[in-house]
Amino acid sequence: MNLEQRTAALLELVEQYRARRFAELLDPAHAEARQILRTALAEARRRVHTAIVEERKRYALEVGAVEAALATDRRLSHQRHAVRLLDTAWRELRARLVARWDAPATRALWVRAYLQRALRSVPCKAGGWRIETHAAWTDTERAECGAQLRIDGVTPVAFEISATISAGFRVVSGNNVLDATIDGLLADRTQLEGRLLHHLQQENA
């Protein structure tokens, strides 16, 4: 083998070594690069997923807040409407009660009903009954009621016109009182408004 052949063989050997060494270095680098890429892609997907989840949560919170605000607005609107409705109904109720007291026929029913209650619940003390009343209850009507009360065992009976009573009357005997004035009948406004609102809602249903 001459010098040229030996040189060529040596160069071939060097080239084979270089190729083998290059492959030994490059293959792990490719594998590492692929792993880095897979890791980067997985991390990117995780970040995108996390961002989407967070955005959905933020959206859900915003939607929930808007819905809660709308529900609050609706509730407040209903409450304001109910207050206006009750104010109107309360004025109407009071006006109708005054009208019933002012009319002789319905005033007689009012007087009869509440005097019957008074006979059951207000004892006749030694001083008898004092009946405070609005002036619409006439002298004649009061005289007739007084006569009937004496038959029922209430004596004496004294009537007293009160400027503070706008309708109705109040029976007083010692510490016992039956308040059949319009203010007494409407004293429990909370309960009456609840019943009024229920009645109005039933009418509108």
Structure description:
By secondary structure, this protein is an alpha+beta fold. Helix content is 74%, strand content 11%. The chain folds into 2 domains: 1-102; 104-191, hypothetical protein PF0899 fold, CATH 3.30.2320. Strand 1, helix 3 and strand 2 form a beta-alpha-beta unit.
In short, what is this structure?
The chain is an alpha+beta fold and 205 residues long. 74% of the residues lie in helices and 11% in strands. It has a four-stranded mixed sheet with strand order 2-1-3-4.
Give the helix/strand layout.
Blueprint lengths: L2 H100 L1 H18 L7 E5 L5 H13 L5 E5 L6 E6 L2 E6 H4 L3 H16 L1
Parallel strand pairs: 1-2
Antiparallel strand pairs: 1-3, 3-4
Number of strands: 4
- The helix/strand order is HHEHEEEHH
Beta fraction:
5-15%
Distance between the termini: 117 Å
CA-atom Rg in angstroms: 49 Å
Q: Fraction of residues in helices?
A: over 70%
The overall pLDDT, averaged over residues, is 85
Sheet of most strands? 4 strands, mixed
Structural class: alpha+beta
State the strand order across the main sheet. Answer: 2-1-3-4
Number of self-contained structural domains: 2
Number of helices: 5
> What overall geometry do the principal axes of the alpha carbons give?
rod-shaped
Q: Report the uncertain regions.
A: none
